[in-house]
Design brief:
With about 90 residues, this protein is mainly alpha-helical. Helix content is about 40%, strand content about 10%. It contains 3 helices and 3 strands. The chain has a 3-stranded antiparallel sheet with strand order 1-3-2. A hairpin with a 2-residue loop joins β2 and β3. α1 crosses α2.
């Protein structure tokens, strides 16, 4: 028996839930920030993967507010970016 909480979500459904573009969700998947499974030709996201992703994002936002800065180790090819809202950013994670 399948319950509603065990349904896998389509990328568009997750984007609609979070009020973001589907491209934002695809970028999170490609960056390894959000786990997805390929079923046929489409990607599906489990409720558990979405919960972990949102918790990770919430922790990051909390650390920015609590500490007042974000320090991300740059990887090869990253360009420096200007600080945003007083945050110190040393690179962009890919």
């Amino acid at each position: 028996m399948r319950t509603e909480s065990s349904r896998f979500h389509r990328v568009r459904a997750v984007a609609d839930m979070l009020d973001v573009s589907p491209n934002t969700i695809y970028r999170a998947i490609e960056a390894g920030e959000l786990d997805a499974v390929r079923i046929g030709k489409s990607l599906r996201i489990s409720p558990e993967s979405l919960r972990i992703y949102l918790n990770t994002r919430a922790e990051s936002a909390y650390q920015v507010q609590a500490v007042g800065q974000v320090v991300v180790e740059p990887s090869a090819g990253d360009l420096p970016v200007a600080p945003v809202s007083g945050a110190v950013v040393s690179g962009v994670a890919r």
